[in-house]
Amino acid sequence: MRNFALGLLLFLFIACFIAIIVEELFLGGRRKRRLMRKTRMQANTDSN
Question: Residue 48 — pLDDT band, cuts 50, 70, 90?
């Protein structure tokens, strides 16, 4: 029973770790590109 509980905790830890990595790499990157594009467009309209 103890081995099962430790295995379950390890599995949950790894699953959360992978979810955090996926969120940072894909969702965070998309958000950053969107903000950079918005800033660039605003700078172009300000200079005109």
Answer: low
